[in-house]
Write a structure and sequence with these properties.
By secondary structure, the chain is α+β, with helices and mostly antiparallel strands. Helix content is 29%, strand content 23%. The protein has a five-stranded mixed beta sheet. It is globular and about 45 Å long. The chain starts with a helix and ends in a 12-residue tail after the last helix. Bound molecules: tetrahydrodeoxyuridine (THU). Tetrahydrodeoxyuridine binds next to helix 2.
């Protein structure tokens, strides 16, 4: 069973997803971050006619968190449609790592509900993070 706050986070990601701008891939993604102040920050993928300029939902949620003064991801929920789990792309795993730790939970949702929970270390093993720069 999910904690109540995790349910809230999943609902936030699922409903934000509807606002995604994905006219090219048609693959809408929503993300919701719970920060260290228990504030929730939303992001969606925003594509561009110049394809490489598009950005992921997770990147948007991280920007919203930083702009609001948060610096720690306690939990992140991601929502995408389809049979396959919408796990964060490789680049976003590293983006999440910057503000999280190996034990941070990543909740994957389909377009309707929570589907599966991962720890960041499962998605990004032996990761490189800010501490690695403390030589
Ligand atoms: N996408 C995300 O927003 N997050 C992910 O973790 C996976 C992929 C977006 C990028 C692009 O707009 C669309 O999904 C298809 O790749």
């Amino acid at each position: 069973m999910l904690r109540q706050i995790d349910q809230r986070l999943c609902k936030a990601a699922i409903s934000a997803r509807h606002n995604a701008y994905a006219p090219y891939s048609k693959f809408k993604v929503g993300a919701a971050i719970l920060d260290e102040f228990d504030n929730i920050h939303l992001g969606v993928n925003v594509e561009n006619a110049a394809y490489p300029q598009g950005s992921c939902a997770e990147a948007g949620a991280i920007s919203a968190m930083i702009a609001a003064g948060g610096q720690q991801i306690k939990v992140i929920a991601v929502s995408g449609a389809g049979v396959e789990l919408c796990t964060p792309c490789g680049g976003c795993r590293q983006r999440i790592r910057e503000f999280a730790n190996p034990q941070t939970e990543i909740l994957i949702c389909n377009e309707l509900a929570f589907a599966r929970r991962f720890l960041l270390e499962e998605l990004l093993p032996a990761s490189f993070g800010p501490d690695n720069l403390n030589t």
